[in-house]
Protein: Gluconeogenesis factor
Amino acid sequence: MKRMSKIPNIVIIGGGTGSYVVASGLSRAPVHITMLMTMVDDGGSNRIIRDEFGLLPTSGIRQAIVALSENKTVLRKLFTYRYSKGGEGLDGMTFGNLFMAAMADIMGSQKKGIEETCRLLQVKGDIIPISYDNARLMAKYEDGSEAVGEHNIDISRSAGVRIKNLKILPAVKLNSKAKKAILEADIIIIGPGDFYTNTIANLVVDDVVNALKKSKGEILFIANLMNSRSETPGYALSDFFADLKKYMPLGLVKKVLVNNNNNFPKPALKAYALENTFPVKDDLKTKIFGNGVKIIRTDLLSDKIPKKEKGDALNRSMIRHDPDKLRAAILNSF
Structure:
């Protein structure tokens, strides 16, 4: 990174494992990180948080807190603990999600509960929900079918059919703190992650794209390693950007990070192939962006396959970016 007169403000827009990996890497760099998290998850323990507690989903926030926490005590480990028994409602739930539900009750609001949880876990940076409004995603597919809800999109019977359009219902407002973070950012990172339910889900929030247009920050897009049968079936890299163009002007993207290490772990590839999920083919050309974009191809692949947590009922990504390689690539690109 070129020498700056101040610590650079880096804003990560996303949710889930992809944003967690990016933040984990950057947390060890001299930067200020703000994570803007999607709030539309409704699968797994998030369904209980939403339906039983009447709160917005907490799993993405919990992962972000763990990524940026400087607390190395047992509290951090406890925050990631997942119950593997206890019957319906507790089995599969993380202690961190229950902790934040209790904190919202104690503090009088989910907003204050998140802030206090960040303080207790000694979060280095800021974690901000993209919106505090309650909403669901709705996907329309090319075959005319629809799926409502993030989890239903992930497991849709239309899996294998491309998504034609994604909406958020009802329309929700951009959190004022999130807008301020975007406007004041030096670097804005979009991706990696579930393309529609994490990435596009943030862009369809009212005023997000307008804020990106007005921001002084440079937008860096991190390309996914794998496509997915449920959201991006058979996608090559150019397909991701053809879809992204429906939601934001591609001219806003100044840099794209693309993995060029194809030495994927074979056991993971075999497991993915059974689900019709494959590595994303790099067919990206600069001309689709217009002038000024820089495509950076480098090794971003982790050689580790994460172990499935006991009690976790959801499918998690087995092939991931390496946080240290991401940190180096991001900082070297500016």
Remarks:
- The first strand starts at residue 9 and ends at 14.
